[in-house]
Amino acid sequence: MSLTLYDMDLSGNCYKVRLLSALLGVPLTIVPVDLAAGDHLRPPIIDLNPFGELPVLQDGDVVLRDSQAILVYIARKWGGEAWLPTDPAGLAHVCEWLMVAENEIARGPNDCRLYEKFGDAVDIDLARAKTVRILDLMESRLRISSWLVLERPTVADVACMPYVALIHEGGLTLRGHPSVAAWVDRVKALPGFAGMPGL
Amino acid sequence: MSLTLYDMDLSGNCYKVRLLSALLGVPLTIVPVDLAAGDHLRPPIIDLNPFGELPVLQDGDVVLRDSQAILVYIARKWGGEAWLPTDPAGLAHVCEWLMVAENEIARGPNDCRLYEKFGDAVDIDLARAKTVRILDLMESRLRISSWLVLERPTVADVACMPYVALIHEGGLTLRGHPSVAAWVDRVKALPGFAGMPGL
After folding, report:
1. Best CA proximity match to A20, nearest among A87, A101, A88
2. Which of helix, strand or coil describes residue A121?
3. Pairing of strands B4-7, B29-32
4. In this predicted structure, what is the pLDDT of residue B48?
5. What distance in Å separates the CA atoms of residue A41 and residue B81, rounded to the nearest whole number?
6. Which of A4, A95, B22, B116 pairs as cysteine with B194 (C-beta 3.0–4.6 A)?
7. pLDDT grade, residue A4 (50/70/90)?
8. Which of A53, A74, A61, A44 is nearest to A7 (CA)?
9. Mean pLDDT over all residues of chain A?
């Protein structure tokens, strides 16, 4: 049974899954879903994910929603301890940044992009303020470390990079955050790296 | 070295940590932080957590922010596989709901409570709509299962319960979601359960 990703090519959340799979050399069967046509709100997607969102991953009987949870699954099943340590402190520190991807980056850089690129209803002033705030916090961390957690790339970096790297599509720039920009380049230089449109 | 929680008694996020510690019988040293006085934005808190938010957990050299990440740490260190399974599917399914706590519940029930109880600036119509949506999704899950993941309580339930149970402080009710209400009662009946103001 092949590993199937229900996917949208312009989604940074779907891209995270494609990126980790590429870095780990795990083959994915990609099934494109037409969001404009509302196919995410109809079977089979809505039966696989009642939240009606992408990405959705299917691995035999295991069906998963949420890009961060999917990264955890792939890393745990095919990445060993390298990409997702399971000691208490290591796992928790990775989770801190998975939560940043789910919260601060989603409501900052991702919302700015939804507004500028897709015309979504967004409180853009709030989204821009949240973007600057999370970039400042990431800059502080990445000024003293090459990676978000530990001294190696983990799923934390895979989860946080895409919407930060796509920030120009949200009408902003990384010019004031050189350590963040250097970290994006470091992720792009990883063996097996795969890009996405706009990156 | 004792396990120290920098805490605010009315915070549902801090309460999650106190609740899991009570359920596992892990003693916590509680250090109350005066948010009204801005103490979360001054040392020692801001040095421990640059995000300037509570809760913060300190366990010797390990310092953690974000309530969901702290639950992962405590469960992994003191809870064995019971509260946080580490097989790929089990861990990922728990993470799906930790992300719901960080995203849908934070922007739904939690935002409604911030607006009604604390007078925070919130798009209340949006927060109410998000609350109904996530309660509907939780109702569907909890109609067919006693717990959010697997057939036993995990950190997923601990992470998602508090702001759902406090929904009356956000001006809403669980009357239309009986399976969610029954699940809240189920969590409250767990051996070792500890409450918080308003619950």
Report:
1. A101
2. coil
3. parallel
4. 96
5. 35
6. B22
7. very high
8. A53
9. 97
Helix residue ranges per DSSP H, B9-118: 12-24, 45-48, 67-78, 80-83, 88-102, 104-105, 111-118
What is the mean predicted confidence (pLDDT) over A91-106? 98
The Cα of A181 is separated from the nearest Cα of chain B by a number of Å equal to 20
Q: Would you call A69 an interface residue with chain B, using a CB distance cutoff of 8 Å?
A: yes
pLDDT along chain B (199 residues), means of 10: 92 98 97 94 95 97 98 96 97 98 98 97 96 98 97 97 98 98 98 97
CB contacts of B77 in chain A (<8 Å) are 88
In this complex, the residue of A70, A86, A103 whose CB is nearest that of residue B106 is A103
DSSP for B113-176? HHHHHH-----HHHHHHHHHHHHHHHHHHHHH-SSSSTTS--HHHHHHHHHHHTGGGGT--STT
- Backbone region of residue A38 per phi and psi (left: phi > 0; alpha: psi in -120 to 50; beta: other values): left
State which residue of chain B sits closest to A96, comparing Cα positions. Answer: B69
- Asked if B68 and A95 come within 8 Å (Cβ–Cβ), the reply is yes
Would an 8 Å CB–CB cutoff place A159 in contact with chain B?
no
**How close A138 gets to chain B, by Cα (Å)?**
10
Residue spans of alpha helices (H) in chain A: 12-24, 45-48, 67-78, 80-83, 88-102, 104-105, 111-118, 124-144, 155-165, 178-188
Entry pTM: 0.98
- Predicted interface score ipTM higher than 0.95: yes
CA end-to-end span of chain B: 31
